[in-house]
Amino acid sequence: MKAIILFGHGARDVRWREPFDRLAQLWRSQNANVPVELAFLEMMQPSLEEAVSALSLGGATQITVVPVFFGQGGHLRNDFPVLLDACRAKFPAIALSATPAVGEDLAVLQAIVDFGARAL
Amino acid sequence: MKAIILFGHGARDVRWREPFDRLAQLWRSQNANVPVELAFLEMMQPSLEEAVSALSLGGATQITVVPVFFGQGGHLRNDFPVLLDACRAKFPAIALSATPAVGEDLAVLQAIVDFGARAL
User: Which residues in B72-102 are b (16+ Cβ under 10 Å) and which e?
Assistant: First the structure.
């Protein structure tokens, strides 16, 4: 069974995660057959490993991790592959893949440009 | 004259800014009559004040700042208003306004969900 993890940076301010919760709700309303979990690099729970564990317990066998980051900086280039490899070692029965950061997607960038244009 | 600033967090890794450069290019290709500058909270140049200064020298009188952040955490709730007010004090002839974070926009969230769905 396929599943998805929306992976964000995390922040001290709990309200920072509101758009992530909204993202997960949106996902559930449109892709009810593909379980989704949020996961955070730091300062927020669950961790990537906890999210993989939860989806695995729910029956997931193929998990795609989507980094909800604009840029591919040190976190995604250095920290994220280490976390992914640790999860692969801990959950060998799960096929774990990752997409580029959402900020690499032209449609995401276009939505941001449109938002700015509407605000003028 | 209206202008826009796309305001990001900034990072140590210079490649982190690539999607921001792409955003600015996309803006220029679609809104050539509205000058755009990037600005960063920390670790990258220019600062918000430098971006306002550059646009002001170019003739801008109304500047909209779009926070290219997912969540409204401490940076946007605390640091950003202070920076905005400092710019207003330094450039009293400029009407400076700000939008919510782009992560508050449903179309941006939908583009992220679509990106994830295509990746499965």
Answer: bbebbeeebeebbeebeeebeebebebbebb
Instruction: Report pLDDT digits (tens) over A6-33.
Output: 999 999 999 999 999 999 999 999 999 9
Sorted by where each starts, the structural domains of chain A and their CATH numbers stand as: 2-119 (3.40.50.1400)
> B16: distance to nearest CA of chain A, Å?
4
ipTM of the complex: 0.96
pLDDT tens track for B1-33: 999 999 999 999 999 999 999 999 999 999 999
Contacts of A2 in chain B (CB under 8 A): 120
- Peptide bond before residue B67 is cis, with ω within 30 degrees of 0: no
For residue B20, give how far its alpha carbon lies from the nearest alpha carbon of chain A (Å): 8
Q: Is A1 part of the contact surface with chain B (CB cutoff 8 Å)?
A: no
Task: Return the structure tokens found at A85.
Answer: 């490899």
- DSSP label at A17? G
Please indicate if any CB of chain A lies within 8 Å of the CB of B74.
yes
